[in-house]
Amino acid sequence: MQSYEVEVKALLGSAERMEEVRRAMRAADPACTLQSRNKQLNHYFEGNTLGRLSETAAQYLSAEARVRLQDFVARAKEFSVRTREKDGEVFLVVKVSVGDDTSANGVSRMEFEEKVPLTLTELDALVLSAGFAYQAKWSREREEYVCKGVNVTLDKNAGYGWLAEFERVVDDPTKVNEAQRDIRALMETLGVAELPQDRLERMFAFYNAHWEEYYGTEKIFMIE
Q: Which residues share a beta bridge with 114?
């Protein structure tokens, strides 16, 4: 079964603003507690087709994962391919846009994320061998919470500074709009403003052009 990721981002910037949001979550939902804390490396790729990647990666995927990825191949008009290292585990990630959103930063996306028995370097080499090229490499520290039924992450991103992501994952495309409403209602309760898609795209483009300057550092930039 495919899953649909509904995600809205908010740029917090400073650690002080992040602390304000953390306190607001606990005030809004006393059951809200830290679920996990981790460090991630995320490598983004561009080019080629999902079909070739699906064939190249098949030997490292479960039978169920191969079927899901093949379904993405049949559906995808716009997609984003990534590799991820999270606390020593490595994942192949594919995100496909739903509606008019972009696969890289859109609000509603189908998501494939599968653990593979490879190192990040080995998985990168596999993706490159399927005809893709590096778009950018990202690094972040992440805190994960659940607040009023919404998954909330507080991310310290190289380049961006602190960023909040509000997410629900649904298994039915008819539930996407309801999930968006729930997320935005929580954000309003917390006093958090959505990062406009056009500004997010400008930030994303700037980072992609300068990622080697920021990857693995605490340096940030400001793009309006």
A: 92
- Sign, CA dihedral 163-103-113-179, equals positive
Long-range contacts (CB closer than 8 Å, 24 or more residues apart) made by 48-55: 48/130, 48/131, 48/132, 49/73, 49/131, 50/76, 50/79, 50/81, 50/94, 52/130, 52/131, 53/81, 53/94, 53/127, 53/130, 53/132, 55/130
CA distances from 82 to 54, 113, 124, 127 (A): 13, 9, 9, 9
Write the pLDDT tens digit of every residue in 192-211. 999 999 999 999 999 999 99
CATH code at position 167: 2.40.320.10
- Total domains in the fold of the chain: 1
158-196 pLDDT, tens digit each: 999 999 999 999 988 899 899 999 999 999 999 999 999
**Which of 161, 163, 164, 158 shows the shortest CA–CA distance to 211?**
158
Residue 222 forms part of a structural domain: no
